[in-house]
Amino acid sequence: MSGQTRPVRVLRNLNAKIAAVPMILTTLVVFVGGTIWTVIYSFTNSKLLPKLQWVGTAQYERLWNNDLWNAAIHNLLFFGVMSMVFTIGIGFLLAVLMDQKIRFEDTFRTIMLYPFALSFIVTGLVWQWILDPGMGLQEVVRRMGWESFSFDPLHDPDTVLYGLLIAGLWQGTGFTMCLMLAGLRGIDEDIWKAARVDGIPRWKTYIFVVIPMMRPVFITTLVLVAAGIIKLYDLVVAQTNGNPGNASQMPAMYVYRYMFTAQNLGQGFAASTMMLLSVLIVLIPWAYLEFGGKKRG
Amino acid sequence: MADTVTPRGKRPQSRFTTNNIVLYGILGVMSIYYLLPLYVMVMTSLKDMVEIRVGNIFAPPVEVTFQPWIKAWSQACTGLNCDGLSRGFWNSVMITVPSVIISIIVASVNGYALVNWKFKGSEVFFTILIFGSFIPYQIMLYPIVIILRELGIYGTLSGLILVHTIFGMPILTLLFRNYFSSLPEELFKAARVDGAGFWGIYFQIMLPMSMPIFVVALILQITGIWNDFLFGVVFTKPEIYPMTVQLNNIVNSVQGVKEYNVNMAATMLTGLVPLIVYFVSGKLFVRGIAAGAVKG
Amino acid sequence: MTHSIQVKDLKLDFGSVSVLKNLNLDVAEGEFIVLLGPSGCGKSTLLNCLAGLLDITDGEIWIKNKNVTWSEPSDRGIGMVFQSYALYPQMTVRGNLSFGLKNAKVPKDEIDRRIARASEILQIQPLLDRKPAALSGGQRQRVAIGRALVRDVDVFLFDEPLSNLDAKLRAELRVEIKRLHSRLNNTMIYVTHDQIEALTLADRIAIMRGGIIQQLAAPQEIYNRPVNLFVAGFIGSPAMNFLKGATVDNGRAIQVGDVKLDLAGYDGGQPTDRPQAILGLRPEHLTIQDHAEAGHTIPALVELDEPMGADALVWLQVMGQQVSVRVPFERRPVKGAQVHLKVDISKASIFDATTELRV
């Protein structure tokens, strides 16, 4: 090999480039290409098969005039806000409790986190069973003598989302607790010493010093939770399958229905494009906050 | 000893203070919330249907029976097939094993190339990859259907394995990239001076040093792929449905009398693999799930 | 003279940032060159370019009269020693030493022969079957040097090899490296930010700043005749004193405040008159006395002293400027005393305040 001539740029470190081919294909073909493809075809009236027959924004007009879609969006918003507030609230509270140099910390963590290892299908099914009105929690309480006790969230359109929430929190709060605990442990020990020397009570230190310092952790957790909620599918399919009525329908289920069973691809594409849009609304401000300010070293 | 100083302030607190009672009280109540479903699942799966109808779901079985487990494993019906959840189990094994191996190989090489062999545009691809992990899968589902169909692997195991490799790539690549970039760069330089090439350094230097992170990736992928539902539904046919999909079909089928004990046994069976992985791996699991979220 | 390394117009840009600017360097065979400079000056970057670990933007690199600008690191005939030792943790010492040779397909008995020789030179025979984790810092660095040694190359590149060691070990290994050089007599390029290492080891020192070699010369030359203010201030500890003044009387004297110092005997010829000049004086080239000598002393007020063992560093106020003088500990003056500083002008340096160059 001669050292005199500058090698052709493409050939330099050829092996590394060959090794990166799967990544390049994935990003370009699937992530970028697939997304653009779907967005483009959402402006067509593709039915059973995709075809480039332009209908402008007709699919989107249909989408937003569709009761099922509007119900799904409404459900998602309600579930999403509740879920974020409680996941983060409970997650942080548990993390603070875990941070008090408690005994059996590992045991508690193991107990809180194991649901996260399970499939949403498993979570949905087991909570469906516990909340079963005929034999589950409600029946147990009634048999204990409280005859008028009523707790049947899954069969009431007004409360079904709370039923999903109970299951969702069961699965997810252990995870947020771990993220928050890592954040708490990442805080400089000297901060606590300084607060003690200044005579600030612990709870005040948490609220006025620690929480502001953990802002990045909160934001990251929020983004992760939000991105997960928008994709929410398995849990609902297993626990309620959108019932009763359409009171627990979700956008992801709407997409699946139109793409793979109702054979109205254009509708499915438009709906999934709206899902992408909602993720971008969460993601872009975050990416801006997270990476925008920093300069590259 | 004229000036013995008496310590002032509170004495160190004993174990039974109000604070501690509240602290352990809350943790205890929360633990019940977390443990209850597992308890109910196991108890229900060990009762017969008569006992379930007359009894309390929180009560332990009067008479323990393993019949529901046997039935769930080998006789439960989905549609016309009545050969139980074992079919889904083996499908999931055949999906998970190759998917885990291939996705980890691809992603570890990616991470290594991104850290040590940067080329023009490599960071751009990585950024897209990370953003891609936030894009709802729904928007990419149909294009992937088309790609798989063109490749002739739509509805096959290989198709699903490819899909898992693709969607496992962002988080795993991030995981490996962060790990490899924490290794001293001089080690890589030394190996280059020693004449090792791309693969030589990967296999002889990086790989032996990276076993912990491979275990983390393994945990992440086994649980993630085993628990997948959406890709299983979309990209496979009923004969090769993974366990989660079959489980849902068994439990949520509208025909026939609901056998809650069999359903719960089936649910337990499906949850068993990730649970075992979870309990065996312990803290590595925590490290795995935090890896994607907490950046350096 | 036979060239061992030639660097011709080397340029390196990271994006829009120019890290190395038109750098030229000629190293003779067997020479010990130290690249010295503050962090970020480009010294390690230059070394990495020589090793082929960084692709350069423009220019040429020749090693042993061969153009290696685009050769692989392993094809350049170099060995390299790193700051963090960079030993492969999963391999034994023997494995570490033989890794490169195996990659180069050197026959087995030849590998054994070279390992035996290197481990004899570095006295690491008892360590051969241990893993790096079981070695001390000094032992690790010996092994790292051994890894360069077995390659049987003419050029050694050292990237701050002693920075991770404690002061005592550092001094020991410094001597060892010097001994190694005199035994093997191969070319060594040595990067450091420690001027003691530079002054003790180098045949020539290259002082770098901002991707440019400011001065390349023998240690004494750099110490006594620094080419500019930066080099003057960087080399020497405690640092050189700088006094603002002006050269007057057709360059025969320098005016500092209201004192004129005679420039007869200045090492650098007769400077022309400059209204803005800087007089550089090393603390060890000043003496404190209690009487004035016209043209040779400056009045000063003693402020405080810093004992440094055998010596003390005395800080004085000279016409509103700070000056330090090194004196034997027992001869340090009392605080607040009014004294006179005698200037040895033959060892002083005068700089132009605008160009910052020595005149």
Task: Describe the secondary structure blueprint for this structure.
The complex is a heterotrimer of chains A (297), B (296) and C (359).
Chain A: H1 14-19, H2 21-41, H3 58-65, H4 67-98, H5 105-117, H6 120-130, H7 137-143, H8 160-185, H9 189-197, H10 202-213, H11 215-230, H12 234-239, H13 251-261, H14 265-292
Helix pairs in contact in A: 2-14, 3-14, 4-8, 4-11, 5-8, 6-8, 11-14, 13-14
Chain B: H1 18-45, H2 49-54, H3 67-74, H4 86-116, H5 122-132, H6 138-151, H7 157-182, H8 185-193, H9 198-209, H10 211-227, H11 230-235, H12 243-251, H13 260-281, H14 283-293
Helix pairs in contact in B: 1-13, 3-13, 4-7, 4-10, 4-12, 5-7, 7-10, 10-13, 10-14, 12-13
Chain C: E1 3-14, E2 17-28, E3 32-36, H1 43-51, E4 58-63, E5 66-67, E6 78-81, H2 93-103, H3 108-122, H4 137-149, E7 155-159, H5 167-184, E8 187-192, H6 195-201, E9 204-209, E10 212-217, H7 219-224, H8 229-234, E11 241-248, E12 253-256, E13 259-262, E14 274-281, E15 286-289, E16 297-308, E17 311-318, E18 321-328, E19 338-343, E20 349-352
Parallel strand pairs in C: 3-8, 3-9, 6-7, 7-8
Antiparallel strand pairs in C: 1-2, 1-4, 4-5, 9-10, 11-12, 11-14, 12-13, 14-20, 15-19, 16-17, 16-19, 17-18
Task: Give a verbal description of the structure.
The complex is a heterotrimer of chains A (297), B (296) and C (359). Chain A is mainly α and 297 residues long. Chain A has helices at 14-19, 21-41, 58-65, 67-98, 105-117, 120-130, 137-143, 160-185, 189-197, 202-213, 215-230, 234-239, 251-261, 265-292. Chain A folds into two domains: 1-41; 59-292, MetI-like (MetI-like fold). The longest helix of chain A is centred in the first third of the chain and has 32 residues, at 67-98. The two termini of chain A are 34 Å apart. Chain B is globular and about 75 Å long. By secondary structure, chain C is an alpha+beta fold. Chain C has two domains: 3-233, Rossmann fold, CATH 3.40.50; 238-352, Nucleic acid-binding proteins (OB fold (Dihydrolipoamide Acetyltransferase, E2P), Beta Barrel), CATH 2.40.50. Chain C has helices spanning 43-51, 93-103, 108-122, 137-149, 167-184, 195-201, 219-224, 229-234, and strands at residues 3-14, 17-28, 32-36, 58-63, 66-67, 78-81, 155-159, 187-192, 204-209, 212-217, 241-248, 253-256, 259-262, 274-281, 286-289, 297-308, 311-318, 321-328, 338-343, 349-352. In chain C, strand 12 (253-256) and strand 13 form a beta hairpin. The longest helix of chain C has 18 residues, at 167-184. Chain C is elongated. Chains in contact: A-B, A-C, B-C.
